[in-house]
Amino acid sequence: MKATFAKTLSANDVGATGSHQAGILVPKADKELMAFFPVLDPAILNPDAWIICIDEFGDEWKFRYVYYNNRLHAEHGTRNEYRLTYLTKFFKRMGAKAGDSLLFSTTNEVGKYRISLKRKELPAEDSPPGVIVLQGWRRVH
């Protein structure tokens, strides 16, 4: 069964804040999202997997899915988070901006995904003030 998840990109995600963040966060609490990406072994320090993503133009991109987990392995470790890294070139080529959505869809091949960027939808002129915009990851049905 095909599954798609979308991540609304923040200014930090696309590098607009000048930070040196290591990729976009994948929340551990979302079990469905965690099952969507490859399983990483927490018994290993910083396990990772390279995933292949095909964009709408047929270009292949390699992204690193990593579990930074030194909190589990080092006395003074602080990190315990999943991230997708090596996205900077993709974001630059696609002109990604804060508020755009990054979509990942499964394919018939393990470790291979479809990827696309959906531009931020601007609210209509007659929209009521205080329009709520979904942030973070969400399942696309």
Automatic annotation (TrEMBL):
Annotated ranges, domain Restriction endonuclease type II EcoRII N-terminal: 3-93
The keyword Nuclease is assigned to this record: yes
Keywords: Endonuclease, Hydrolase, Nuclease
Range of residues in the leader sequence: none
One MF annotation (Gene Ontology) recorded for this entry: endonuclease activity
Protein name: Restriction endonuclease
Organism: Lysobacter auxotrophicus
